[in-house]
Amino acid sequence: MSTAPVPSISEQELASHKSGSEGKGKRSRKGSFIDPELIRRSLGQSVRKLSPASLAHNPVMFAVEIGSVLTTIDAFRYLFEGKMSSFSFTGQISLWLWLTVLFSTFAEAMAEGRGQAHADALRKTRTDTEARREVANGYEMVSATQLVKGDIVVVEAGELIPGDGEVIEGVAAVDESAITGESAPVIRESGGDRSAVTGGTKVISDRLRIKITADRGESFLDRMISLIEAAKRQKTPNEIALALLLAGLTLIFLVVVMTLAPFSSYSHTTVSITVLIALLVALAPTTIGGLLSAIGISGMNRLFEANVLALSGRAVEAAGDVNVIMLDKTGTLTLGNRYATEFVPAKGVSEQKLAEAAQLSSLADETPEGRSIVVFAKEHYGLREQTIADRKATFVPFSAQTRMSGVNYDGHELRKGAVDAVTDWVGGELPPDVSDTVARISNEGGTPLLVGEDRKLLGVIYLKDVVKEGIKERLAALRRSGIKTVMITGDNPVTAAAIAKEVGVDDFLAEATPEKKMEFVKSTRAQGYMVGMVGDGTNDAPALANADVAVAMNTGTMAAREAGNMIDLDSNPTKLIEIVEVGKQILITRGALTTFSVANDVAKYFAIIPAMFMVAFPGLAALNIMHLTSPRSAILSAIIFNALIIPALIPLALRGVKYKAAEAAVILRKNLLVYGLGGLVLPFIGIKLIDMVVTVLHLVSVAH
Amino acid sequence: MTWQGLLQPFLLMAVVALIAWGMGTYMYRVFEGGHTFLDPIMVPLERGIYRFVGIDPDQEMRWTTYVFALLAVNLIGFIVLFILLEIQTVLPLNPAHQAHVPFWVGWNTAISFVTNTNWQAYAGEATLSYLSQAWLVVQQFLSPITGICLFLAVARGFSRQSSNTLGNFWRDFVRALLWISIPLAVIATIVLVALGSPQNLHPYTHVTTLQGLHQIIAQGPVASMTAIMQLGDNGGGFFNANAAHPFIAPNVVSLLFQLLLGFAVPAGCIYLFGKMIKDTRQSRAIFAAMAVLFLAGALIMYHFESAGNTVLTAHHITLASHANYEGKETRFGVGTTTLFNNSTTAISWGSVAASNDSMTPIGGMINLFNMMTGEVIFGSWGVGMIGMLAFAILAVFLAGLMVGRTPEYLGKKIEAYEVKMSVLAMVVPSFVILILAALSVSIAAGKAGIFNPGPHGLTEVLYAFSSGVGNNGSAFGGLNAASPWYAATVGIAMLLGRYAMYIPLVAIGGSLARKQHIPTSAGTFPTHGLLFIVLLVGTVLIVGALVFFPALALGPLAEQFAMNAGRLF
Q1: pTM (predicted TM-score)
Q2: Which residue of A has its CA nearest to B520?
């Protein structure tokens, strides 16, 4: 029999709970940045996106496009007038302005392209299947498209499930790899929390009777595809707020540039429209404006790559804001199986005797608890493993009446079981030392099991719920980033408190019922917190529906999946933590690139302003602190820098700024330093270098 | 530069911090509950006013109602003042037989004194009757109170939660008048008289000087008018020369007293805000940010004024001091006068002790910049504080995103609506200044009013509109402010700078009051630490610099570089 020691079980457990890409037999959802097919498609898309109608949703880039048109006209005017030097300069500015717009549409197309690839892969699985529909006198074969809510179908092994539904009869192994990417089949059965099936998945053993719960076009797969494709159209609240700020900034700079024309003519100098537009484009927040939609779309993609399906972008953003998360004790924080960790003998009984009895009584007990007792006795008391046959013993299985199990051997009766059951068996009274032990174990959150022989008490087995590996560190990381964790458990408050302390959660909800969970969500939200929770069972649905971020397990019931605003295809309860991180990452990336974009303006001013007015006020040459070669090379270099920074930052926009759980102040200090100070300094260097190249290549005439 | 001159601004900030604490504590009791030593006199008076006017001071108002009441009071103030000015020739108390006030000057002045700008397109002693001056004093009492009401409405947005209302405008208005304006003005008047300012209603005195020349000595209720002009950050001086006039500031003690008077309420509002939101650490951070900006301006100005005019040095012209004494109040010296002028533009005050027009280009630019940033470096009664809050909202919005949460400030979520309104408030000053200045340098009516063409003229124009929008009221000079074009457009600038800028902020207050408080945690970006101060200062500087850099490059910067190269305008 299996004698796997405890740690290896926990490793196994953890492995199956590990997220997406690391699991075995997993189809990789990760897209590569240098996928040539993706780049080729995105290039085509990016040119199509230049149409004013599709650019209008992005005021910053729309302004740049209008500017490009104007400078292009200006360039051709010079060409027809035969002013070749001015034509060359204006033409190059126009070219780079067009490239600026193109780079931004390319970024968006890249982000969308990765999502599109996921959607296409899913669509392939949506083949039209035949369904065996129950009618009054047997079955009829209909196309899956004809199924409506409430129909009952039967699916045999080897057949595709024709639509989303609830298993009402049968148990079967189902291959859900089409949806989850997980090749290992899962068990679906009627009743309980594993009754939901998804259209497009395949029954690989047995047969299921399924009640269809979704009409054609509203199925899970359809929703998934449309969600992935629609990611580009949804604007989240923060994105709207940021877009407003960017539009406001663009408007301010428009006025700055427009009023500069009269100011300069008052100062007896003329500035060409191309130079004014160049200044506008340099000042407008084009970097973030060009990458904003790509950041949001790729955030959704990243979640999908982690096998999480967000039903709205709003939910993803809310995930970044969550400050209380509710985690189920069993299966999320603890392994859910209890393990023997201590034998406490009764007075007058030796530890060795108790260990032996405990082991003997558990030999035939195939439950994880039973196995753990055998293993514990072997490892800590040197008891070699024996079998029931060796001792000529007969196994007494657990029954609902006795609530005990054990063995009979050599005329002796050996029993182990719950405290009250064994207490009754031994005659109704516990010696004080044993009842103290029982109380201690309960208080520490453990489960005491009593062992007795021939109606005499031998001692207590301490069974402990084992905390998952690494969970303490994750909870600590959450606390550092200001997120409170609440453990949900059915245990009594005393036990719950003990486990809560051991696991390291901030709070717990004991003796949780569906009503209590929902009340807890509601009252926590009423205090101003944003609540995230994971649920799978139907009884989680009310609480899920009230939470800000509600992650339903894919293995969960339909009710839970309906109530949630995200679905974890891996059904991994700790995934919520990753979801929170992705939510934060999207916001951080937006903020960082905005800061970078605005900070860039300082250097661009120092390049362009002296270039514009050095003729009228030679003293302003003092502002040319980068010592750029000539006014024209200065302006061109600033515009080239402005354009090139967009593709340079596409990988960052698609990947997201790295997020490591830490205090807000620490994260801010770091990001301000990198993106604020970096954004201030980098363009000075970049523009200077580009100016050197422009000069070497004689791209503009040096004379003014 | 002297070490005393360098130390002076730091000392000033230290004293202002003390005053802020005292005034803030007092004002908290006045507005948000508690008792003050003035209650036995003022409470019956307050009740009498409510009964007389028939208002219920306990009726809570939504932000729209609050703003409507405020606008109504201001509109009535405008109409009364405008009529008074236009018919002063037929009204009593005009012993100097002042003539009719031109229409646009009347418009300009009426707006000016309603919006707490107190830009004077006229010379007070040569234009207005005693009655007009007296009514201006009334407005100088009322207009800063409007500011403090705007402030209270916004502050309650932060301090309240799940509430639709922001308090009662009438109660705030009456209490500010009875507990703050009147008692402080009375005390300040007594102090100023004691320090030597005249206080009478005599006709102007005609004297023959020792040289045998004839001189008219203007006088009147100088002390009382100076008290309220400085206390209310009005700056509309009894005399055109303002604080450089020996009757307004007879000595340096009087001048410094007036300086502190100007800081009293604006700085107090910072601490009051902290008391209201029950977190005075936030006040400290905002005070620190303002102080940093103030000190930077004061020191740069002092440096350039002390360095003086490089052209003189270049031409081997040696004066007693190489510092720029031109236009300074020589009784007080370069250090004190520049400190006074930097303060006056920072506090949206407008009282001056030196001629801005005669400063070095960079020195003048500091004054200009203080106003262009939206008068958030202390600013006028309460509105400087809420202007700074708008900057804080923008700073926190970006910073908040960078920590990975929906940005929040003082426990309130900053969402699209708040960003939209802050951007609106931020856009107003830049649009008004740039567009009106661009028009002025393009059309004949505008160009005709510029006395010094070239970059210096551009500075003069920018200054006029910045002063108007910032509701500051200090003048650079060198501009024909009384010409119909400037009187009309500066009037528009003052209107927009007051209402288009601050009403969106009250709207933010209304929206924030409805929101719930988010409990603070390690995930909350702390807004009371050094990092936030740096961020806030950076936001003010960068936003201000980015918007006005091109204009400043063609104005004061071009002039300074030209001056260094030996060219003057």
Answers
A1: 0.84
A2: A482
